[in-house]
Design a protein that fits this description.
Blueprint: H1 2-7, H2 16-23, E1 28-30, E2 35-39, E3 42-44, H3 48-52, H4 60-63, H5 76-90, E4 96-100, H6 110-116, H7 120-135, E5 139-149, E6 152-162, H8 167-180, E7 185-191, E8 197-204, H9 209-219, E9 223-229, E10 232-239, H10 245-254, E11 259-266, E12 269-270, H11 275-290, H12 317-323, H13 357-369, H14 374-385, H15 395-406, H16 429-441, H17 446-475, H18 484-494, H19 499-502, H20 509-533, H21 538-541, E13 548-551, E14 554-557, H22 586-602, H23 604-614
Antiparallel strand pairs: 1-2, 2-3, 4-6, 4-7, 5-6, 5-9, 7-11, 7-12, 8-10, 8-11, 9-10, 13-14
Helix pairs in contact: 7-8, 7-20, 8-11, 13-15, 14-15, 17-22, 17-23, 18-20
Length: about 625
């Protein structure tokens, strides 16, 4: 509505005293083309450049104003009396905005940043920010956005807030979000009529994002935030010192789009040097605010957690129906391939939660495999927990029952190993034997069998070592032995169970951010690896998600096949029920998966060629 006033020529040639008499002398200032009027939303001015590009038709907002001028245009009094007052009412002095991001990586491409706006880490960060706003009494609306500049981008959040008491309160809220997101810097902006800074917003329609970004670069609007909207985008620009008005005006004329501006006070809060320096600045802002007893509200992260030792009180109807089965049929005649019989240890934060349908089915399936009768299973449950019904158990209790049943009869033996190719050390005597055999017998056992396998194994070691190092860099402190439970949560998150972290009552907001950030990195990493091998990521994340057995400390893939186990990659093995615990350490699985993929990339072809060559040899030489 304010921008409609900016487009009217009614301000032109008006005397300053006449405007002052109508709206107050403090509201009127001298401008480049004549007097300008200050409203709560900023400065309303006459812009002849905008006037020359005005469309002939009136906008709906203009059409709603009664025409009283000689040429059919509303008078200055009508325009400013109606539109100005309406704008002052709708844009409160408590209006504020924030820019903050969960991204901690450098050199993201625009497409990568766009994809990460849909990540679990972004979803969690928005949820934490909304909780902060709610506790501080702010009405907010956060949207996913892209922090964009000419040679980079990052996924970010643009947050509109109402009911902010003062700028210190806004800085406190923004510092909390910056700290949880481990950001170098964040931006709070509060609308104030006499503020030195500006916030521009424009809804650009019918343009592709690459074309829009190119135009912004051309105009010198180098730092902007983009919110994708249908066939265009909302462009948001924070302008410290209010220097970009002419460039934004040109942007509006180029795309025939309305530009709105809020004058106010903003700040780059944090540091442009390092994350550590930014965190120190956030701690200072947070400490100063919370130590001031006159501040009405502060943030308590514990209020966002919903802890309960007995979740049975808030059960869904399906679970209640299951518990109501006093004499459940414990027998399972068949287990689906997607359901391993063995129940995994409960994830951190869920030990006291009610056993899930999947977990109870796993216990029943295991009992059926062990040929334990209903009476026998009931006796085990009763003796361990004192309860009569499997469906009333907590996850920790169900796990104890499962482990007891698993060890009730003879444990399954380690599967027989496949015939496999053993790659000896590089100084093995076979090297010299094969080299001499090739010279004497004229079969290429050295040049076309041994050397290609040796070279491939060396490349594989470099490849595997690189991934091990990268994984431990990304996991950071969570790669240590004391964080196994956190790595199990990450693995569950990667498999699609994002709520295991996001809604986990045992985790702080900061830990949730750390774990989801690692989980999203793993998901993106696996997608890239799969793409290189020509398979879709849904083959992993969906029905063919691999499971690794723990057997005597050795990781084994489920099924055997004609190709040696060392060569065949994990994604070609089918899932099936098993009676051994499954590997669910996200870091251990990363090592296993990347090595399996490396074997497929580097060893599969040399092995295939070796088999073809050996097929042409005499039996005694084979």
């Amino acid at each position: 509505q304010v921008s409609v006033v900016q487009l009217r020529k009614s301000l032109f040639d008006q005397a300053k005293d006449n405007l002052a008499a109508k709206f107050g002398r403090s509201k009127v200032v001298d401008g480049q083309f004549g007097p300008e009027l200050k409203l709560d939303s900023g400065i309303v001015k006459y812009d002849p450049n905008v006037m020359t590009k005005m469309p002939a038709t009136t906008s709906p907002a203009e059409a709603a104003i009664p025409a009283t001028g000689a040429a059919g245009s509303p008078s200055l009094e009508t325009i400013l009396g109606n539109m100005g007052k309406s704008s002052t009412k709708n844009i409160s002095t408590a209006e504020a905005y924030q820019f903050y991001s969960p991204n901690t990586e450098e050199n993201l491409s625009f497409d990568e940043a766009m994809n990460r706006t849909k990540s679990g880490n972004q979803l969690l960060y928005k949820k934490i920010g909304e909780d902060i706003d709610q506790q501080l009494g702010h009405q907010s609306q956060a949207v996913n956005a892209i922090g964009d500049w000419s040679d980079g981008a990052e996924n970010t959040i643009f947050n509109s807030i109402q009911k902010v008491n003062n700028f210190d309160e806004l800085k406190y809220s923004t510092a909390l979000k910056g700290k949880i997101g481990q950001q170098k810097a964040v931006i709070p902006f509060m609308v104030q009529p006499d503020g030195p800074d500006s916030l521009f917003m424009a809804n650009i329609k019918n343009v592709s994002l690459p074309d829009l970004r190119a135009k912004l670069d051309e105009l010198g609007i180098n730092f902007r935030t983009l919110v994708e909207e249908g066939d265009g985008a909302k462009v948001v620009v924070y302008d410290p010192g209010s220097q970009l008005a002419d460039k934004l005006s040109t942007l509006g004329k180029t795309f025939n789009s309305e530009i709105t501006v809020r004058r106010g006070t903003g700040e780059f809060l944090g540091s442009d040097v390092s994350r550590a320096a930014g965190m120190a600045e956030y701690d200072k802002v947070i400490s100063n605010y919370e130590s001031n007893l006159s501040n009405p509200k502060t943030y308590n992260p514990n209020l966002a957690q919903t802890t309960s030792k007995n979740n049975i009180q808030s059960m869904d109807p399906y679970t209640k129906a299951r518990i109501a089965r006093k004499n459940p049929d414990l027998a399972l005649t068949k287990q689906t391939p997607e359901m391993p019989y063995i129940m995994a240890k409960p994830l951190k934060g869920y030990s006291d939660s009610l056993v899930t349908g999947k977990q109870s089915d796993q216990v029943l399936g295991l009992a059926a495999e062990k040929e334990i009768s209903d009476v026998g299973l009931h006796a085990i449950i009763k003796s361990l927990t004192g309860k009569d019904n499997l469906y009333e158990l907590s996850q920790a209790e169900a796990y104890d029952v499962s482990e007891t049943v698993r060890n009730f009869a003879n444990a399954d033996n380690m599967p027989e190993s496949d015939a496999s190719i053993i790659l000896r050390s590089y100084t093995h005597p076979a090297r010299y034997w094969m080299e001499s055999a090739e010279r004497e017998l004229k079969y290429p056992v050295y040049s076309e069998i041994f050397l290609p396998l040796e070279t491939a194994s060396r490349v594989l070691k470099v490849y595997s070592d690189r991934w091990q190092q990268k994984g431990r860099e990304i996991f950071g402190d969570y790669a240590g032995p004391s964080h196994l439970e956190e790595r199990r949560l990450i693995n569950s998150y990667v498999e699609g169970n994002k709520t295991d972290i996001i809604n986990n009552p045992a985790l702080s907001a900061q830990v949730k951010m750390d774990l989801t950030r690692i989980g999203d990195w793993l998901i993106d990493t696996y997608k890239g690896l799969f793409k290189d091998l020509g398979i879709t990521s849904t083959k992993f994340f969906g029905e063919y998600a691999p499971k690794i057995r723990k057997v005597g400390g050795i990781n084994n893939l489920y099924k055997t096949a004609d190709m040696p186990r060392e060569i065949k990659p994990f994604y070609e093995f089918e899932r099936e029920g098993a009676l051994s615990p499954l590997e669910d350490d996200a870091l251990a699985l990363l090592d296993i998966y990347t090595r399996a993929i490396g074997k497929k990339k580097f060893l599969a072809e040399p092995v295939k060629n070796a088999s073809l060559i050996m097929g042409k040899m005499p039996e005694n030489l084979k």
